[in-house]
Design goal:
The structure holds two protein chains of two kinds. Chain A is of the alpha/beta class. Helix content of chain A is 23%, strand content 35%. The radius of gyration of chain A is 15 Å and the shape is globular. Classes of the chains: A alpha/beta, B alpha+beta. Strand 4 of chain A pairs antiparallel with strand 8 of chain B.
């Protein structure tokens, strides 16, 4: 299961809508080992394509180093499909290289309907998981001090 | 001194879990061949018949090696090589 604050879900959808009809992509980083998405990092789609995405290689190096320095990892890797359903394509499965990440897919094919789904992709196997949205509390499920 | 090579999670099965390993050589191709002699199978994951695999990003210090000559990019002691799988996919 993926648990994420409502504001981050909204940020992913807003990015996907803004870049439509091209695919949008990005990362939500979180503390290593926490499984908690916290820091929204929209990425450039170097392909600028309605059917393909690829992180810009130099931007990826910078962002991955920054995560390393902050002891974070890519908890969520998201991208949009602009004409098809929010389900991993054969291309998505072939290039999925982060078995620990939640792969979030958004479809922008309908302007009045949101499709937002999350998957694990490991060794070519796709497993859908529940998405639980933590409303209004930016601290998520942390216990108040 | 040697050349530090930073290995992404997905390839650490070849390095007994190590995040970084050391290699030597005069070019990127040399270093990869040197690593493969101790971490068999790594070369196959990085290189194919046409050169560096398209969906593997390799950086020499702060630069993408594609801009430095790819496999023939010259390297020297003290350099850092970073390997990151490309993050890619798409609707078709």
């Amino acid at each position: 299961m993926l648990t994420m604050p409502a504001a981050l879900r909204a940020a992913i959808i807003a990015h996907a809508r803004a870049d439509h009809p091209d695919e949008a992509c990005g990362v939500i980083a979180g503390p290593a080992g926490s499984d908690r998405p916290e820091r929204f990092i929209p990425m450039t789609n170097a392909e600028r394509s309605p059917t393909f995405y690829r992180f810009d290689s130099m931007e990826q190096l910078r962002v991955w180093r920054e995560m390393d320095e902050r002891d974070e990892e890519p908890v969520v890797i998201y991208h949009s499909h602009t004409a098809t359903e929010a389900y991993p394509s054969r291309t998505d499965i072939a290039y999925a290289m982060e078995p620990e990440a939640h792969y979030v897919l958004v479809s922008t094919r309908y302007c009045d309907e949101v499709e937002f789904r999350s998957f694990r992709i490991a060794d070519g196997i796709v497993t859908e998981e529940e998405v639980r949205v933590a409303e209004d509390d930016p601290a998520g499920d942390r216990v108040p001090e | 001194m040697a050349i530090e090579v930073r290995i992404p999670t997905i390839l650490r099965t070849y390095t007994d879990g190590a995040k970084s390993v050391e290699g030597s050589g005069d070019t990127l191709a040399d270093v990869i061949a040197d690593l493969d002699s101790r971490h068999g199978g790594l070369q196959e994951r990085l290189v194919d018949d046409s050169g560096l695999r398209r969906f593997v990003n390799v950086y020499l210090n702060d630069e993408d090696v594609r801009f430095l000559g790819g496999l023939s990019a010259p390297v020297k002691d003290g350099d850092t090589i970073t390997v990151l799988p490309a993050v890619a996919g798409g609707g078709l």
